Amino acid sequence: VGSGSAVSLSRQVQGTGGSSAVSKCSAAARGYIQDRFLRLLAGRRRRRAPLIHRGYYIRARAVDHCVQDFLLKTQSLPRTQILSLGAGFDSLYFRLKDMGLLHHTVVYEVDFPNVACQKATLIKRMKELSALVGDTGGEGLGATVFSGENYKLLGVDLSELSELERALEEAGLDNEIPTLFIAEVVLTYMENTRSDALIQWAAEHFPQACFLVYEQVRPEDPFGRVMQQHFRQLNSVLHSLAQYPDCEAQQKRFLGKGWTECNVMDMNEFFTCCIPKDEQQRVQTLEPFDEYEEWHLKCSHYFVLAASKGMEPSWTPLLPSVTVPRHAGPDGMAGSVPAAVCGGLSGIPGLRRYGHHSVLIKPNVILTTGGFGEEDGQHCRMRNFHVLSKRAGYWKAVCVTPNIPDKRWGERLYHTVSCLSDTLALVVGGRTSPLSAGLGMLWLKFPKTCNASDPDHITVEPVSLQPAAEAAASRWRHSVTETTFKGEQYLFVYGGRSALEPVLGDWYFLHIRELSYTVIAVEGPVPESRHSHSACSWEGGVLIAGGLGAAEQPLGSVFLLRELEHGFQWQTIETHPPLVPRYSHTAHVHDGKLLLVGGVWLHASSVPGITVIDLMTGLCLDYVINVEHLEWPLMLHNHSSVFLPNEKELLVIGGGGNCFSFGTHLNPQPVSLSLSSI
Q1: How many CA atoms lie within 13 A of 90 on its CB side?
Q2: A Pfam family this protein belongs to (predicted)?
């Protein structure tokens, strides 16, 4: 790389630090983290989205967890030091100083010379900062641009190890005292040979040391591909990922470079195991939030690592007080299911959406409604419907503007649609924003001839409900399933969430003819409250699988609501091996088997494909989806799917979402999954 290119690359990397400071400042302003110094160092202010706030909260919490552990375990020693690599505009020193935790600890911060100079200028200009740090007049000595009480700020390129070593020695870094190294999304921007050399240098030159790393992982799954593309577009390539793609590889990296102990976990594990339950609940209720999939995916693509050597007792800050709910994923794959794009459905932007619902309204004719997606070149909540039909082996789709006399459609997400006849469907619930109180029920009326070649009008009419049934419609991420009791047809509304309740476990039986609320006795162990689960009709009853529970943890249970003579009974279906907990999947029943499609799970190295559960034996088999013929990442969450039994085909429509700060990914076109191999 020529010097001009190197300068350009360093500027791009520095830009990520400035953006991080703004995001941390926004999270602090909303109460996620307590840090009054961020607003002084961030420069500009900008309100970020709740998903970004959560992401920077968990990052700050992980670093603080390890720093405070180091200070606690060395508090009886006369001298210690912290070396923050690529510190940017971080406020760590000021927070620790303000809390009175630096009586015998010196903090050294290193970043590119121009970043360090900007920070030094800020400190001198802000009385609140300069009063806390003092000014001992050490700047100008070598690479030191600011010197204060227990604080040294150095301007050095981390990739030039010999320069870094010389600058730190001149600034007074002592190799013989306990040292904490911090690299918060830093090493990955360096070429691996240089970052490896830095890790090994620290182990070789500091006999008592700890090394804290926070950065990205899992580059090759759909979310990881979107993440990598984002950083490539910023000209800030994540070098570590190719050689160290997972937590195990990062652990081996440090153990192979001279560190004697190394603990590592992804941020889902950290949140579950290292943050007290009351603090988890506080964070989960700070803002209206409905991006669970993106939150868990973001956390599964970042890790925190703590390596140590020569410190007694061995430094293991990340050993949780409870068992980590690790799921290695499926025991093995039973086979693969090929995925193919539906050629006749390419180039239709309205099919790029998530949080929508698709339903088979007659053989080979599908109605897709609602969600958030792409319309007229913009991202928005979807007002128009789409009708898809298959004829002579080819799919065709057409956009339909619904006839909505009173504007009650509401452009909703996370609703359900149940087809009750060849001319009538029922919409239940959904939301506009997470603050919405629920959108009620609507009739969708369409002609018998409705298909993609002759869509005609679809009329939307409000449903008048009894007061007792209104609560059934004031929810989203729920399920509505047809069931039978004493020969009569009912809709079984179950679970979901509302603006007031983050998770619901109640249910309603609605008699289909007049949509009246009917009380029917249900016995047996009541399933844990959940949303984003799947529900299918089977033998007159209802199969409930997975979902997200009250603590925002995926569930792996499968229940059957079975008809009895006097009512219904909840019955647990035991699966073996146990079903890996998941949510935001879709499900279908065929030939005595429950098929779960996609979804989100935690702590597994792979992404969910298709899981087949034999409802007679409980045998649980997993199939990977073969995406080699797709030119884009296939995200199987917040999608819809329709099963065509005569074709042994699953049509997946839409899916994806907002990938943290990396941009929105929507599956570009529907995908056909051939089930002939299952």
Answers
A1: 28
A2: LCM
CA–CA dist 588, 388 (Å, integer): 19
The DSSP annotation for 269-304 comes to HHHHHHS-HHHHHHHHTSS----HHHHHHHHHTEEE
The per-residue pLDDT for 402 is 84
* Of 221, 197, 177, nearest in space to 79 by CA: 177
Strand partners, 507: 494
If we measure between CA atoms, which residue out of 107, 97, 104, 92 comes closest to residue 146? 107
pTM, to two decimals: 0.93
d(CA 384, CA 353): 12
Query: If we measure between CA atoms, which residue out of 211, 203, 141 comes closest to residue 181?
Result: 211
Query: To 5 degrees, how large is the angle CA 76–CA 82–CA 83?
Result: 160
| Cis? peptide before 50, omega within 30° of 0 | no
Domain 2-309 has CATH 3.40.50.450: no
Fold of 335-674: Neuraminidase (2.120.10)
Please report, for residues 66, 515, 521, the alpha-carbon distance to residue 510 in angstroms, rounded to integers and kept in the order given: 53, 5, 14
Q: Please state the domain extents for the chain.
A: 2-309, 335-674
In angstroms, rounded to a whole number, what is the distance separating the alpha carbons of residues 63 and 81? 16
- 3-state SS assignment for residue 345: helix
The pLDDT, as a whole number, for residue 12 is 53
Q: How far is residue 231's CA from residue 420's CA, in Å, rounded to a whole number?
A: 48
In the numeric block, which tokens belong to residue 177? Answer: 């005292």
Q: Who's near 317: CB < 8 A, 6+ residues apart?
A: 65, 66, 69, 70, 263, 306
SS3 label, residue 135: coil
Decide: 511 and 518 in contact? Cβ < 8 Å.
yes
Greatest Cα-to-Cα distance within the chain, rounded to the nearest angstrom: 88
Residue in 505, 512, 513, 565 with CA at minimum distance from that of residue 530: 505
Locate all alpha helices (DSSP H) within 82-154, ordered by sequence.
Answer: 92-98, 113-125, 127-133
Decide: 94 and 82 in contact? Cβ < 8 Å.
no
Cβ atoms of 665 and 324 within 8 Å: the answer is no
Distance CA 209, CA 288 (A): 41
Contacts with 590 (C-beta within 8 Å, 6 or more apart), sequence order: 643, 645
Q: What is the DSSP letter of 630?
A: -
Backbone phi, psi, residue 347, to 5°: 75, 15
Rg of the chain on CA atoms, in Å: 28
Mean pLDDT by 10 residues, the chain (678 residues): 40 60 92 93 85 96 94 94 96 95 96 95 93 75 87 96 96 96 96 98 97 96 94 93 96 97 95 94 95 97 95 48 49 86 81 95 92 86 90 87 71 94 93 84 88 76 85 94 95 96 96 90 96 97 97 96 96 96 97 97 87 96 95 96 90 93 92 91
